[in-house]
Amino acid sequence: MLSDQAFVRYQRQIALPEIGESGQRDLNNAHVLIIGCGGLGSAASLYLASAGVGKLVIVDDDKVEASNLQRQIIYRQNQIGQLKTTAASDQLLAVNPDTRIRTLDKRMDKPQLELEVMLADVVLDCSDNMPTRQMVNQVCFEQNTPLITAAAIGWQGQFSVFDYRDGESKANACYRCLFPFNELKQASKCSDSGVLGPVVGTLGNYQAIAAIQLLATGQFIVATEMLHLFNGLTLEWKTLAISQDSHCSVCGTSEQDANYLCEKPL
Ligand SMILES: [Zn+2]
């Protein structure tokens, strides 16, 4: 049963038939792991805390820099120099003091990541590098944990949801089927290229929407195993189906280099 205080706070989403009081209680009991708290994690974590997600685990080993503030909207000028995890936690608690937040200000090795994924209901990949993305995908797949991934560069964004849970909804493709490599070309790295703040924010918001769908209703309503591509110039979306690669080292039947990712920390 929701408290009167909670009912007032969340009434505008409780009024949505897909959520209701039951969905709100599920959100209040949910545990979300957010890998990376840059532009994507900023937007996603703010909306998830606002929506009443009970527990957020935020992972990032960077400090807030002036050049982050153009797009990483969770941070404030007076937080420059602070650990991102500390600064983000302060802002999230300022929005919703009922959210329980745990922070990890380091890069996790695979065993640590496995433990964190085991505890989570859903994982948001908000990281900015391919080795991390591939390891997060591998661990989510192995543990049958849903994964919501996004990326943005320039005016472009991409977003995908993989439902790795057992049963009929088990994914037929994984992130690695889509991107079967460990490094992006130098020009595609966020730290080296331009990127528009609201484009990153749009993709982070999509991640929050997908997470709320899953946590409040028990399933994704958005189509899973699809590549949703956003063009920030035309403001148009395109959606492409992701095919399973039978030789994929994570979800395919081939045994080739299946565990090569284990050696590198995030
Ligand atoms: Zn795969």
TrEMBL record:
It comes from Vibrio brasiliensis LMG 20546. It comes from the Bacteria. This is ThiF protein. PANTHER family: SULFUR CARRIER PROTEIN THIS ADENYLYLTRANSFERASE (PTHR10953:SF240), UBIQUITIN-ACTIVATING ENZYME E1 (PTHR10953). Residues 10-249 form the THIF-type NAD/FAD binding fold domain. One of its GO terms (molecular function) is thiosulfate-cyanide sulfurtransferase activity. InterPro entries: ThiF/MoeB/HesA, ThiF_NAD_FAD-bd, Ubiquitin-activating_enz. Belongs to the HesA/MoeB/ThiF family. One of its GO terms (cellular component) is cytosol. CDD domains: ThiF_MoeB_HesA_family (cd00757).
